[in-house]
Design brief:
It is a single chain. This protein is mainly β. It contains 2 helices and 14 strands; from the N terminus they run αββββββββββββββα. The protein has a 6-stranded antiparallel barrel with strand order 9-10-11-14-13-12.
């Protein structure tokens, strides 16, 4: 059985996975924390946990019945590069149980090494409603002050272990000087009021979810939600540091055109 082969390789793959998903092994002290709001069952059915063995190395979003959008750095190292070792759990707030656990079929990576976008093709269609991809000509989510949310199973910044239950956080798009933004579709965002990064290790690949009418206090979108980008790789020491925002990969313009071409 394929899952048994995955488990047999898990110990060897762990080093590669942690490296590719932003795990910091330097031993430096953690200077910030990230505490999100636990998602309710069924609240974000399109959210995906990409898994090698029992791990949850990255997040992603279902954007079509057989396609998940994530970050390509999540699977580019060592054994992690083999799609047959991967599964994707969709539609559950618990990364270890529930929802649909579907085998990965192929990885399709954006051809430019500086653009951190990838698609995972699934062996069979998921049954939940996908998240809409941002229109190619939409620019509002990338303007400083735009509000969004993100979510994932990342650590709280004081741990090296992925969370069991899905958390979500408010996001505000910031100027390019608050991260490594401004080129190759990279934009900056973090928690409101300059609180810094809202993500941490194992959140990589997570969606930047935007809605034109915003969100209620419990994270419910007031209008159609869209995935406007994905979280690029990060290191544990950047989690929750005030004034240090995350690097996000845009999914509009030419990047969105490329995604649509792959999944049509």
């Amino acid at each position: 059985m394929r899952f048994e082969r995955i488990l047999a390789a898990a110990a060897i793959a762990a080093i590669a996975l942690l490296s590719s998903c932003g795990f910091n092994s330097s031993g430096s002290d953690q200077t910030g924390t990230v505490v999100g709001t636990t998602a309710k069952p069924g609240q974000f059915p399109w959210m995906a946990s990409t898994q090698l063995g029992e791990g949850a190395p990255c997040g992603g979003s279902l954007i079509a019945p057989t396609w998940v959008l994530t970050g390509k750095h999540c699977h580019q190292t060592g054994l992690a590069a083999d799609p047959e070792r991967w599964q994707v759990r969709i539609g559950s707030v618990d990364r270890n149980d529930g929802g649909e656990l579907i085998d990965a079929k192929t990885f399709v990576d954006y051809p430019d090494d500086d653009v951190d976008l990838a698609l995972i093709e699934l062996e069979k269609p998921a049954t939940v409603q996908p998240l809409e991809l941002i229109p190619a000509n939409e620019t509002k989510p990338y303007q400083p002050g735009a509000k969004a949310i993100t979510l994932g199973w990342g650590t709280d910044g004081n741990s090296k272990t992925a969370a069991q239950y899905l958390d979500w956080n408010e996001q505000v798009t910031a100027g390019n000087d608050t991260c490594k933004g401004g080129q190759n579709g990279v934009f900056c965002a973090g928690r409101p009021s300059g609180q810094g990064s809202a993500t941490c290790t194992f959140d990589s690949g997570a969606p930047y979810v935007w809605a034109d009418q915003g969100f209620t206090s419990d994270g419910t979108p007031r209008s159609t939600p869209y995935v406007a980008g994905t979280l690029r790789g990060l290191f544990n020491e950047s989690c929750g540091v005030p004034g240090q925002d995350d690097d996000w990969q845009a999914a509009n313009a030419a990047y969105g055109d490329w995604i649509r071409q792959q999944i049509k």
